[in-house]
Write a structure and sequence with these properties.
3 helices, 2 domains, alpha+beta, five-stranded antiparallel β-sheet, three-stranded antiparallel β-sheet, PH-domain like
């Protein structure tokens, strides 16, 4: 599951931390870019030391640079962390999005409700929290099954908090 709970202690409340799936880790990134570079360089060996080599080289280098940039940009766009802090008198949801965008939502736990929208949301089984000044989404990047599990878990913890 791409989320984890940090249980409450005497000096810190329950904390839920959510993050999106990352199918390509750092090692996979290196292997993929390296493998692609080898595959692109292989046909170049046939024209090594000819004028054709120098004609093809800038285009192949540009293709590698574009691939690296696209993967790096995709990685940066998936740097999303949602942190929900549950204390008996206060709930805070902080979302750190791509390129360090910050959003914060606060509410009284007594009034907070977990809503699951079967249809009509941007994703199936769309989860929202309501009870503060506005309704906010939670874990839109999770799979539908993970959102349903998170909904059940969050309802149990809110019930115990009250």
């Amino acid at each position: 599951m791409p989320y984890s709970w940090t249980p409450a202690t005497t000096d810190s409340p329950d904390t839920l931390r959510l993050w999106p799936h990352r199918s390509l880790g750092p090692n996979g990134f290196v292997w993929f870019v390296g493998g692609t570079a080898v595959l692109i360089a292989t046909p170049l060996m046939a024209v090594l030391a000819t004028p054709i080599f120098w004609g093809l080289l800038p285009f192949l280098a540009a293709a590698m640079a574009a691939l690296w940039w696209a993967l790096h940009r995709s990685w940066a766009d998936r740097e999303i962390i949602e942190e929900l802090v549950l204390s008996p008198d206060h709930i805070t949801l902080t979302r750190t999005g791509p390129r360090k965008q910050h959003q914060k939502w606060e509410a009284n736990p007594h009034w907070v409700r977990v809503n699951r929208h079967e249809a009509g949301g941007p994703v199936p089984h769309y989860l929202t929290l309501s009870g503060g000044p506005r309704e906010v989404e939670l874990g839109a990047f999770l799979t539908p099954e993970e959102r349903m599990t998170l909904e059940w878990d969050l309802r149990q913890r809110l019930r115990a908090l009250r």
